[in-house]
Amino acid sequence: MAERTIAVISAGLSKPSSTRLLADRLGDAAARRLIERGDTVKVEVIELRDLAHDITNNLLTGFPSSQLESAIEKVLTADGVIAVTPIFTASYNGLFKSFFDIIEPGSLIDMPVLLAATGGTARHSLAIDYALRPLFAYLHADVASTGVFASTDDWGSDEDGVKPLPERIDRAAEELVGLVTRSTRSKVLHDPWALPAGFRPNGPAGLE
Fold it and tell me: pLDDT digits over 109-158, tens only?
């Protein structure tokens, strides 16, 4: 029996949003499987919409607000992360990318991660593989092989032979739980607020 924390990141811009709905479904599914294994689980939901101004200010100044600092700490100290973004112009939205831009390089090494996305049509479903996976490969996260995409009319649909959304959610959650239970990632992390090498006054290294 272990105490587990799952950080669920939602980059939806509207309230309510299908992105948050999918994030909640995935978080619930992962928590349910961990509980079935005898673990105690805490799910921490991080709405990036509520942190948009803080994220922008951090990009400009290199310093986080207390609210943003708390959100990043929840991510870095979690046993696993569920990251969900709407797809804009064939990729993740700017808010999603900006949040991960301000996380210290190396902080997500070997972190178990489940990737998911929402969009208007199933034509955007490949964005998980060609946009999100390269980002988390760069971050050296341990990403579940199954990503979950939900289009506007995808909730509960098995049209054209596509597995129903609940089935895909269950499969992805099971994979994430497997990564979490096998993970040897240390919770002794680098200080996320240490200034990286090459820091310049106008923001973190590499940001202009």
Answer: 999 999 999 998 887 889 999 999 999 999 999 999 999 999 977 765 55
Direct distance between the N- and C-terminal alpha carbons of the chain, in angstroms, rounded to an integer: 46
- Work out the burial of residue 140: count CB atoms within 10 Å of its CB; fewer than 13 is exposed, 13-18 middle, 19 or more buried: middle
Please say whether the structural domain 3-182 has been given the CATH code 3.40.50.360: yes
Q: Counting every residue, how long is the chain?
A: 208
Quick one: angle between helices 52-61 and 94-101, nearest 10?
50
What is the per-residue pLDDT across 62-91, written as a single tens digit (0 to 9) for each? 999 999 999 999 999 999 999 999 999 899
- Rounded Cα distance, 119 and 18, in Å: 9
CA distance 34 to 95: 30
Q: What is the pTM of this model?
A: 0.86
